[in-house]
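S2.1 Query sequence (DUF5007 domain-containing protein)
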Amino acid sequence: MKKTLTIKWMSWLSLTLFMFSCKKDSTDGFLSPALKYTNPSIKIAVGASLIQSGAMVTDESTKPLVFTIDAIHYEDGKIADKLMNYKVDTYFWKAEYTGKEKTVEELNKKRTKVNRPAVDINPDNGNIVIYPEATDTTLFTKGKYIIDVRVKNSGGERVLKGALTIDVSYALPYTYRLSGLDGNITGIDVTFDRQENTGNKILVYVLKKDGSPVDPKTLFGYDYSNTPGVTDLKDWHNLGLNNPTKYTEFPDHLELEIAGFPLPFVSGQVLRIDMYNNGDINGGYFNYWFDMSILKEGIWKITIQLKYN
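Output structure tokens follow.
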């Protein structure tokens, strides 16, 4: 049985953690010279999802430790002032985002809006975070950045020069990840085509092996509910916050009108699409499921090419 992948924000993402304070130990502490990140150089595509470096390896240093970003440099060594001063409006979550929320008001009860540095750090463990809202390409340009991190504890403080290098590119205006296949199907090829830059519409085409269209009435959403009498379909009828606002089936495609983008409404999250057919398309039951998001408005055409023997 398939299990829903539940996306949870790490527990430190709450406003109170940025009010961290502590007293020094009455005895001398130890601050290791071997502090480091497990992966000191990472490639990232900003603007789609929450990016995290992972916690710093502290090598028996006395706790608590306090981590701050001391400086961010360009590859040539100059200070990246624009990036260091770049802040974004983002959200810290107080309760789990489920994707079943019906209104923005319901969402806002679960989260707190905050203004944070686009390149942020968890003061408890050194985990460097880049928020999905960091999309201003004039302030966060492509290229490599070197981050110096300051670490303090009761044993003193140290600036780790070049603690982390990030190689920045820009995310596509959509995300897609195949999650699974079952039955008489060997694969799917999914393409996203932004046909117009303005608008709030999605066109969905599913194609047979020979390229002929599938009638959307022959595909059904998989039910994830474990509660009798309650459905939890992961299909094109259920895109979050009462989307789509209009659902129209044509013999060869779906036309979905959306209240607005990004889709889903919460930056950094994804939608699960999970569809099956009982055999009238290719002679046997098949099921495919994938995760996706669309980050920019427009008229979007999504084409799903079925692959089977």
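The chain has two domains: 15-170, 174-307. The helical segments are 81-85, 104-108.
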